[in-house]
Amino acid sequence: MRYEKGIDGEPSSVGEVLETKLQVSSFRIMKQSSAMNKLSTLKITKKTVSENSDEEVCVEKDNLKISFESLSELGTGLKTTTHRLADALMIKFTESGSKEQTVSLSLDEYMKLCDLKNSAEMRRQVNADLKTLLNMRISFQKSSNREQSMSDIVLCKSVKVKSNIIFFTFSDEFFVIMKTMPVMHYPEKLFKINLKKNPNSYYFLKKIAEHKKMNYFKKNADTLSVKTLLGCTPELPSYDDVVNKDRAVGRRIIEPFERDMNELSDLLRWEYCHANGTKLSDDELVNFNYYVFSGLLVKIRWKEYPQLHRKKNKALKSK
Fold first, then answer.
1. CA 140 from chain center: how many Å?
2. Per-residue pLDDT reduced to its tens digit, 185-199
3. Is the pLDDT of residue 1 over 60?
4. Regarding beta strands 156-162 and 64-68, do their DSSP bridges make them parallel or antiparallel, or are they unpaired?
5. How far, in Å, CA of 238 to CA of 261, rounded?
6. Helix (H) or strand (E) holding 65
7. Using CA atoms, how far apart are residues 223 and 212, in angstroms rounded to an integer?
8. Cα(175)–Cα(164) distance, integer angstroms
9. Nearest-angstrom CA–CA distance, 260 and 263
10. Can you say whether residue 241 is alpha, beta or left, with left for phi > 0 and alpha for psi between -120 and 50 degrees?
11. How many CB atoms lie within 10 A of CB 176?
């Protein structure tokens, strides 16, 4: 049985995050889409694909397909650092008015943004991630009229690092699509997470932020299922993999899940619940296992979130 200490020193319910001193949260704005949201849940490395360097690397998830012409074009892989760099470039594009096809990002600015200390390691990782982004091709079948399909397009057509600045030029096709994408509020906390200590926190927070923006005016804006959060991170093993290996479900899935959700405590509080916010029963708390865990919802309480306003109906406005 696991408890978190409450602010008065008494145990609070399972999974509830400590109420710490409120820190003003910083949000940026970034273009988003279903395709890019799904892309940011993928991890592709040489360990997860064929070792035959002559073969095309192809990974599919639902209606999204990511491909590289060869293993060598994958570089060190599509990883959390790759997604984080893509976010920074997308934020630059969005905050500059979404008008320029080429965006620039200073390496010093990026290093400061991510709280990185080792400049040599940062440059090595940035170069590897840029190679991955340059060679990646995306196909996406839209599921609604609000989206646009993509057919084997590249994200960028050229990239270079000159005078300590990244110059990233989006492809013609992706540039057109990006201009139609809606904007989401992006917590700067996503750049500050220690990816080695808390490998799932980036994926959890990004999913929570995307869900909040997409459902802001709905009752479920701050409620997600545990299964949804498990499905957004490539860093946790599946239940079947764990059961077939050592059966350490608590140590390998539940504990890392709670640890990396707790890492977000300077930005939000969270707790397990059932539908309509119903709390866990005493029996569920005492016999907390994967069966109980995987059927739960997670209730989010943001310490701070930008206020959004409904767009006025143009038809009504013209009357």
1. 18
2. 999 999 999 999 999
3. no
4. unpaired
5. 18
6. strand 64-68
7. 9
8. 24
9. 5
10. alpha
11. 13
Q: From CA 84, how far away is CA 186, in angstroms rounded? A: 11
CATH code reported for the domain at 27-185: 1.10.10.10
Which sign does the torsion angle of CA 286, 287, 289, 293 carry?
negative
Question: For residue 156, what are the β-bridge partners?
Answer: 170
Spatial neighbors of 148 by CB under 8 A, at least 6 apart, are 33, 142, 177, 180
Closest by alpha carbon to 289, among 253, 260, 262, 256?
A: 253
Residue 47 pLDDT level (bands cut at 50, 70, 90): confident
DSSP letter at 131 equals H
Q: Considering Cα of 46, then 52, then 53, then 59, what sign does the dihedral take?
A: negative
The pLDDT tens digits of the residues spanning 215-265 come to 999 999 999 999 999 999 999 999 999 999 888 999 999 999 999 999 999
C-alpha 292/C-alpha 250 separation (Å) is: 12
Please tell me the pTM assigned to this model: 0.88
Radius of gyration over every alpha carbon of the chain, rounded to an integer in angstroms: 21
- Cα distance between residue 317 and residue 319, in whole Å: 6
* Domain residue spans of the chain: 4-25+193-302, 27-185
